[in-house]
Structure formats: structure tokens, C-alpha cells
Amino acid sequence: MTDLSGRRLLLVHAHPDDESINNGATMARYAAEGALVTLVTCTLGEEGEVIPPGLAHLAPDREDRLGAHRVSELGDAMKELGVTDHLFLGGSGRFRDSGMMGAPQNRRPGAFWNTEVDEAAAHLVEIVRDRRPQVLVTYDPDGGYGHPDHIQAHRVAMRAAELAGERAYRRDLGEPYEIPKIYWNRVPRGAVEAGFARLRAEGGAGFPAVASVADVPGVVPGERITAEIDGAAHADRKRAAMRAHATQITVHGDYFALSNGLGQPLLTTEYYELARGTGGAPAGEREHDLFAGVTA
Ligand SMILES: [Zn+2]
């Protein structure tokens, strides 16, 4: 096993469940190898839809207690992944889920989308300067699929990375620190198309209908991918972490569905595009370690 002591990975996500869907295998791998894996979740996912009928009373238009429930789901998911360092940006409940783009919840006071980027970023700067990760993982500028909280998570993560390294910025938040490598979550079109082909060949794997490539966040041509992490050895942990988010996700074997019930492939190889920093693979090849080329 590679000695990963001293390696630190920070992931910034919008809602509980995003980390397990996007990065569950990567997180499990690095945690198992001894790296410090830190997850920052920006909201409690209060506006999510609830899959199990028995928990429908938690929904925001009824008791509005989904956030607290999702905190416990996230805790269970982190146990499955072996990750102990997880925080909510600004503390639990500081920023609220903004709902889908255009929803009235976007403009609610305290909604993440309705918060100044620099105000939210300051909370993350403090974490960056304390943990000093060599690698940051977040979404692309569109948040993968245009959800306001995902777009905002991208903006806040990128802004915090910038501010953390500025010598003159808020020394009360810690010593300046420059993150060497920043990745965006991506999915290569070929891999997701192949996954859908298998799913259709299996008759939908128990889901009433099958989603399409357009429903998958972050899909890009394969050439854009600069790193791929083979999570085969951690696939069961990723599945278990996704199952822990039971209000949001249903898992059937190698496939899963969100609240719309549409089956889609559960990818255990996870893909990234290097957005900032120097890669450890020759041009045109993919890295197989997010820390490749990191020296400190
Ligand atoms: Zn999300």
C-alpha cells in the first residue's frame, strides 16, 4: 500500500448524497489508504423530495424536518465510506437548500443561492487554511446540471481556494495556503452511454423506467477527463453509502434512481477534470491518483 500519510483531500458538495453519488469510491479509497478526507456539505438538503412514503411527512411542505433527517443519513454514509471529517459550511443549518432553479425558495433569506459568495467562502477559507488539502474536488461552473446550490458550491469553493492563498486576506482565518490541485467532477459520455446500454439490456434492472444521458450531471466528451479513479475495490462501500441516503436514492445492484424513479448507471469508476494545478500524467493520458505530482 502506498503511504498516504500527510495526504489531504477536500471535497465541497451542495447537499447530503452528492458526495456518495459523485465521489463515494474515491473517498472510500483515500480514507482506506490513510489520507485525511474532509467533506464540506453546504446545505442540509432541506428541499429534497422524499422517496419512502413512510417518511413523506418530513418534506418541506409538511413538517419541514427533512434537513435533520438528512444529517443522520449523511453520518451513516460517512461511516460506510470510512470518512470521519465531515462538516457543514458555516455549521449545520447555516445555509439552506435553495430548491430547483427558479423556485421561490431561491430567494428565501438564508438560502445558499441567496448568499454572497464571499460571505460563504470565508467559512470555507477557514477550513482550507486549517486542513491544508493538496487536492480540492468540487463541481464545474454549471454545477454539473444547473442546480443553484451546485453552481453556488462551485463558486464558493473556487473563491475560497483563491482567498485562502491571499496573504492579505483575513489572517484571523489562518495562515495563507494555496491548494496545489483542483478538480471538477465529470463523467465521460462513453462510460455513461455504455452504462445505460447495460441497464436497458437488463430490462431496467427493476426500475419502472430508465433515465437518459441528459439526466446525468457533468457529462463531457472523454477527452476532457484528466483523471479516473478505479473504485472497483470500494464499490460495495459506495453502494452502501448511497443506500444510506434512503430518502433520496434507491439502489439496485449496479444502478440507482433518484426521486423520479428513473434508473441510471451507478459508476464505481469516478472521473475528474483538472481545473487548476499541474497534472501527474503526460498530456492525453489520464491520472489514476488525484495526488499524482503532488510533492508537499
Ligand atoms: Zn445536490
From TrEMBL:
<dbReference type="InterPro" id="IPR017810">
    <property type="entry name" value="Mycothiol_biosynthesis_MshB"/>
</dbReference>
<feature type="binding site">
    <location>
        <position position="15"/>
    </location>
    <ligand>
        <name>Zn(2+)</name>
    </ligand>
</feature>
<dbReference type="Pfam" id="PF02585">
    <property type="entry name" value="PIG-L"/>
</dbReference>
<comment type="similarity">
    <text>Belongs to the MshB deacetylase family.</text>
</comment>
<keyword id="KW-0479">Metal-binding</keyword>
<keyword id="KW-0862">Zinc</keyword>
<feature type="binding site">
    <location>
        <position position="18"/>
    </location>
    <ligand>
        <name>Zn(2+)</name>
    </ligand>
</feature>
<dbReference type="GO" id="GO:0035595">
    <property type="term" value="F:N-acetylglucosaminylinositol deacetylase activity"/>
</dbReference>
<dbReference type="InterPro" id="IPR024078">
    <property type="entry name" value="LmbE-like_dom_sf"/>
</dbReference>
<dbReference type="InterPro" id="IPR003737">
    <property type="entry name" value="GlcNAc_PI_deacetylase-related"/>
</dbReference>
<comment type="function">
    <text>Catalyzes the deacetylation of 1D-myo-inositol 2-acetamido-2-deoxy-alpha-D-glucopyranoside (GlcNAc-Ins) in the mycothiol biosynthesis pathway.</text>
</comment>
<protein>
    <recommendedName>
        <fullName>1D-myo-inositol 2-acetamido-2-deoxy-alpha-D-glucopyranoside deacetylase</fullName>
        <ecNumber>3.5.1.103</ecNumber>
    </recommendedName>
</protein>
<feature type="binding site">
    <location>
        <position position="150"/>
    </location>
    <ligand>
        <name>Zn(2+)</name>
    </ligand>
</feature>
<keyword id="KW-0378">Hydrolase</keyword>
